[in-house]
Amino acid sequence: MLQLSYKAQRYVILFGFLTVPLLLLFTFSVYPVLALFYFSLTDWDGLGFDMKWIGLQNYKEIFSQPDIFAVFRTNLYYFFGGLIQTAVALWFAVILSERLRGRYFFRVILFLPYILHSVATVIMFKNVYHAEYGSLNTLLGALGLESWQQMWLGNPNLVNFSLAFISMWKYFGLSMVIFIGALQSIPRDPYEAAKIDGASGWQSFRFITIPSIRKVIELMLILTLTGALEAFDIPYVMMLGANGTTTFVIQTVDTAFKFQNYGLASAMAVVLLAIVLIVILVQRKLLFKGGD
Q1: Which residue windows are transmembrane per the record (predicted)?
Q2: Is position 77 within any domain?
Q3: What is the per-residue pLDDT across 139-158, written as a single tens digit (0 to 9) for each?
Q4: Range of the domain at 154
Q5: Is the pLDDT assigned to residue 133 strictly greater than 90?
Q6: Could you tell me the end-to-end alpha-carbon distance of the chain, in angstroms, rounded to an integer?
Q7: Position 280 in a domain
Q8: What's the maximum distance between 2 C-alpha atoms anywhere in the chain?
Q9: Is residue 113 a part of any domain in this protein?
């Protein structure tokens, strides 16, 4: 057998371990992005390989039509809902990190919505929001609050609030668990020293907890922002983008599959990718410029 030196064996092992991950990365990440950018420069109906090269024409069409970007107003509902969800999740994480009886039970209950499939979640909330037999209007009627009963999905002024609440409810548990993990990594010594010095609970939270988990808060804000920009499953399954619930991703999917314009849809996807990267960069440079 061929005898390899120790140094050669190291190189062979490193090459073997790196080849497969890099091959998978190129196959499922790099190549699709490059192909997406190429498709965005063509006039293609998604069938066959008959692609007409049109250069930047799709991008010119995107930036010349304000209606394409107007749908980002819908994404704002999910962004502000995500901010509220993050704040409430942090509050619950602080409570459930203490020596509270039954805290593991509450953690499981609050995390359960996240593991539910989005379609199952939407079907459940259809029964909650239904104008006639929905459980929400039924509860309001039982409490004598008939004036509060609404067409939660039929009213254009309420439908996006209703859908954003579903997103908040579904992803709340994930945010809470991430915060709990971060809180449990903080040593107890600073809290004990602050307590001896007479610091209140709010002061300990503000000057010890928040700085200690700043990186995690930054991560959660990035996830909130990107999640809002990429909102798709809940509004699409629930409303198919009707009644003013169309998001940018829904509009991109409709452009590709409903109008058979894959070139324009690819350009819209590239623009969304660029917007996400720019927003994350700006967020890190401005909002957290004082960090490490």
Answers
A1: 12-39, 76-97, 104-125, 161-183, 216-242, 262-282
A2: yes
A3: 998 888 888 888 999 888 99
A4: 73-245
A5: no
A6: 52
A7: no
A8: 86
A9: yes
